[in-house]
Amino acid sequence: SNRAAVFTMGALHEGHAALMKAARGAVGATGEVVVSIFVNPTQFNDPKDFAKYPQNLDADLAICEAAGVDLVFAPTVDEMYRGEIPEYSAHALGGILEGEHRPGHFDAVATVVARLLELTKPAHTFFGEKDYQQLVVIRRLVAELRLPVVVHPVKTVRAESGLALSSRNQRLSPQGFNVAASLGKALAVTCELLQAGDSIENAKAAGLKILQSEDIKLDYFEVCDVDLNVATESTKVFRVLLAAIVEGVRLIDNMEAVRN
Ligand code: PAF
């Protein structure tokens, strides 16, 4: 097929628009861009997070239309999970970093994405680097199932403050928005030091220092390699990842550093 698919949970923002743009770029004007909007209940390990997840289908449809999307797939929970659905696993990736704090989350993501790929049958699919671990999980899934789809990563879109765009940012006050900007700053500092050849220990300490605030509860801050193994001093391409809670909103972000 000459179809590209972007899977979302709605509450669309510039980050999603970048995925749609990349999708259009891959298939051209004659290809078909499909966007799914489905707030998948099974991947929310915290029912309160699910209940508070922003939903606004009319606004989302307007964004899709403006982005020139050909088809929007917005099923109900019943439509998605009717009948026997094969369940997939994120394997060991489901138990580290995000997975350690959100048990079952990545298995549920793998299962719903496999279902979405089966239903939409795209040749190309696009995932934001903002959810870096999810991207790694999906790549593994596609390889494991030998699915005929190319998984394309798309760069994280950031606010001017450096805060990574996220649907959950809507739940922050203007004050919280400022506090949350230090997440992107901490990652940038750690990545700069890693690139400059500083030790992992020093680079990490400099990032952590920026996050020392009463208003930030850090879940983790880890320096990994591209496959999310713990990095060593001989790692060439690093991924620094964090999760933190600001004003009761759990935010994640990550950045790449390349050492020559
Ligand atoms: O990244 C998301 O929005 C979701 O995890 C996804 C990929 C749409 C699966 O529900």
* Overall geometric form: globular
Mean pLDDT: 97
**Unreliable residue runs:** none
What characterizes the major β-sheet?
5 strands, parallel
Give the oligomer, counting copies of the same chain as homo and different chains as hetero: single chain
Bound chemical compounds: pantoate
Helix content: 25-40%
Radius of gyration: 18 Å
| CA-CA gap between termini | 40 Å
Q: Give the strand order, joined by hyphens, for the main sheet.
A: 3-2-1-4-5
- Compressed to H and E, one letter per element, the order equals EHEHHEHHHEHEHHEEE
Summarize the structure in words.
A five-stranded parallel beta sheet has the order 3-2-1-4-5, sandwiched between helices. A three-stranded antiparallel beta sheet has the order 6-7-8, covered by helices on one side. The radius of gyration is 18 Å and the shape is globular. It is of the alpha/beta class. β1 (3-8), α1 (14-27) and β2 (32-37) form a beta-alpha-beta unit. It has helices at 14-27, 47-52, 57-66, 77-81, 98-101, 105-120, 132-144, 174-195, 200-210, and strands at 3-8, 32-37, 71-73, 124-128, 150-154, 217-225, 237-246, 249-258. Bound molecules: pantoate. Pantoate is lined by residues 7-9, 40, 43, 109, 112-113, 131, 134.
How would you briefly describe this protein structure?
Helix content is 39%, strand content 21%.
Keywords:
single chain, 5-stranded parallel β-sheet, 3-stranded antiparallel β-sheet, alpha/beta, 21% strand, binds pantoate, globular, 9 helices, 260 residues
